[in-house]
Amino acid sequence: MEGVDHLAHERNKSEFDVDAMKIVWAGSPHAFVVSDRISKLVASDPGFRKDNRSTLSRKELFKNTLRKAAYAWKTIIDLHLSEEEAAKLRFYVDEPAFTDVHWGMFIPAIKGQGTEEQQQKWLPLAYKMQIIGCYAQTELGHGSNVQGLETTATFDPQTDEFIIHSPTLTSSKWWPGGLGKVATHAIAYALLIVGGREQGVHGFIVQLRSLEDHSPLPGMTVGDIGMKFGNGAYNAMDNGVLRFDHVRIPRNQMLMRVSQVTCEGKYKQSDVPRQLVYGAMLYVRQTIVADASCALSRAVCIATRYSAVRRQFGSQNGGPETQVIDYKTQQSRLFPLLASAYAFRFVGEWLKWLYADVTQRLQANDFSTLPEAHACTAGLKSLTTTATADGIEECRKLCGGHGYLCSSGLPELFAVYVPACTYEGENTVLLLQVARFLMKTVSQLGSSKKPVGTIAYMTRVEHLMQCRCGVQRGFAELSADLVEAAVAHCQLLVVSKFIEKLQQEIPGKGVKQQLEVLCNIYALFLLHKHQGDFLSTGCITPKHAALANDELRSLYSQVRPNAIALVDAFNYTDHYLGSILGCYDGNVYPKLYEAAWKDPLNESVVPDGYHQYIRPLLKQEIRTARL
Ligand SMILES: CC/C=C\C/C=C\C/C=C\C/C=C\CCC(=O)SCCNC(=O)CCNC(=O)[C@H](O)C(C)(C)COP(=O)(O)OP(=O)(O)OC[C@H]1O[C@@H](n2cnc3c(N)ncnc32)[C@H](O)[C@@H]1OP(=O)(O)O
Ligand SMILES: Cc1cc2nc3c(=O)[nH]c(=O)nc-3n(C[C@H](O)[C@H](O)[C@H](O)COP(=O)(O)OP(=O)(O)OC[C@H]3O[C@@H](n4cnc5c(N)ncnc54)[C@H](O)[C@@H]3O)c2cc1C
Fold it and tell me: 46, 466, 473, 586 - which has most CB atoms within 10 Å?
């Protein structure tokens, strides 16, 4: 029945203060208040409705996304929302759109690679959305290999301009979100050519469309690249294709914080690492780690609540069947994902601090922690997105057949999420960057430069020093193994940041105890999953492995009575979850049944096509081919 909490008996089992855990998950009391208020504002506004998305054509979906983006912007202006509240509103609207790239990449790129003057000119326009930006780096022929990009930016000293050109088909910009139909401007990455010399890839602000009638400017061929994976909401994003035909832009539209071109045509590399050109990717990768904890927690919330509702087998003397959450197999698949959601939340908090710290240091021209920041953002982005994509699929499977319904929310969550393993750096390519960082650290062992920070533990691998010779040859040959070492390094990072979180003051009855259980599940699950490596390297004995397995089962039993409360702590509205299986009151079956009849296919009892195709079949009116 409506209004009845079918999960009340589960919530009554909780052994900790859920409201206190909500604040831990949100990050602070202030963050909780903002998040709670904005999520409820979005959920209560029919203008942000999203339950009909799966029935829309791509053009209807896209137009509806434009409407929502404009409505969200009007809401932000009308309610005088702060930047923090506006970001939360875009998050809870939960629709991939050009605004993600405008706010998530275009603006950070100008802030990180633009001069003070360039920031003063372009950021006010972007913040007021008087221009809409995209991040046009990837091309048809190159995405991972940024230095392989083919778009050219040739300086013309006669006119003090750059000529932006797409010399080959493979140099066509391809994938940039927002580019296909909406963006008026791009940060376009191109190979800089000055005085006939190539100077590597740099960023340029290029206007794409008229601010009067939105028509593409002369020399621009631009459009959408077409439908993407599944029927999911990511088709609301106009990932685009763009070709430049000798487009001229003023010299002051090259982002010149890292390097400059003078009006005389002199190329000047300032004394900052050229990698600052990659700065926007560092920023986005750290936001993606926080997004992973959100996406995984959504899937785990749905699967946990449904696992408590679903009963299958196990009836004794006509009594109720067993809740599937009570099966050890269900717990061994679900609870490590619950622990991972919390683990990624805390490592994401730390990574946000690391990024802010390195940004502050860069402003003082202190580049000492940039390599570590790159390795951490690259590695954790790779680790958390792979685990989250796999985790969302596992949550679908944990929900049996109903997990495959769009009304479960899981197919769309998966379809929207999985490109995170590819965009902002393909996950294996990024792990190779971590491996390169680790091997560089090994090569420096024994020197005066001692490993510090997240690699301090490597002082204990001095014996690896002898493998210093032939590093380059070894690297390529052993890259598959080195990628595994990179994953292990990142897993150590996640566990150590979870442990550090537990060393903080954490208020609320039983809250720290629950987090300790989840931290132990996360760590022991990894030890169990990779026990082959731990055994083969002599790190543990078979007895240790058996003890870890026994302890895991015990820990699952400790989580079981708190599972529903632990996912309630995410404080997601039913609107944001978008899932009948994960609805707060657990009243699943009536909602599933009611939702079925809303499908357009059920608008008529006799389906379109019956009279044309089925009736002739049934009535043998179709001449059957001689068998
Ligand atoms: C719908 C979304 C919702 C929410 C998300 C919210 C916001 C985000 C919005 C949208 C997200 C959606 C789409 C994503 C958009 C994109 O995908 S943008 C394009 C992303 N593309 C990439 O990530 C390309 C990946 N490739 C690279 O980064 C580089 O090519 C490379 C690092 C792989 C290689 O670099 P190279 O310069 O060629 O060579 P290298 O020799 O390997 O490196 C030289 C040295 O530089 C160091 N380094 C490399 N990168 C960085 C960096 N970013 N920062 C600092 N340092 C870096 C490297 O470690 C080497 O150092 P050494 O000391 O070893 O020499
Ligand atoms: C949904 C979505 C949104 C996107 N949005 C944007 C955007 O807004 N702006 C933008 O500029 N780009 C965007 N991209 C593009 C994205 O950044 C690239 O697709 C991504 O960087 C991967 O590059 P690639 O496609 O060249 O992959 P590739 O590098 O071609 O990957 C193919 C395979 O080659 C392997 N590989 C590549 N190099 C090596 C190596 N050195 N060693 C070992 N293996 C290797 C990879 O591991 C992978 O298995 C988007 C992509 C998607 C899917």
Answer: 586
Does ligand 2 have an atom closer than 6 angstroms to the CB of 104? no
Percent of the chain with pLDDT over 70: 96
d(CA 64, CA 47): 10
* Alpha-carbon distances, residue 45 vs 39, 66, 373, 404 (angstroms): 10, 17, 40, 28
CB 99 within 8 A of CB 236: no
ipTM reported for the complex, 2 dp: 0.97
Closest atom of ligand 2 to CA, residue 105: 8
- Above 70 in pLDDT, residue 232? yes
Binding positions for FAD are: 138, 177
Structure tokens at 144: 């991972």
- Indicate the annotated binding residues: 138, 177
Q: Is the pLDDT of residue 466 over 70?
A: no
pLDDT band at 1 (very low <50, low <70, confident <90, very high): low
Question: Who's near 324: CB < 8 A, 6+ residues apart?
Answer: 307, 310, 311, 312, 330
Does ligand 2 have an atom closer than 6 angstroms to the CB of 143? yes
- Model pTM score: 0.96
pLDDT digits (tens, 9 = 90+) for 487-506: 999 999 999 999 999 999 99
- Distance, in Å, from the CA atom of 12 to the CA atom of 3, rounded to the nearest integer, reads 17
> Is residue 340 within 8 Å of 391, Cβ to Cβ?
yes
Is the Cβ atom of 249 under 6 angstroms away from ligand 2? no
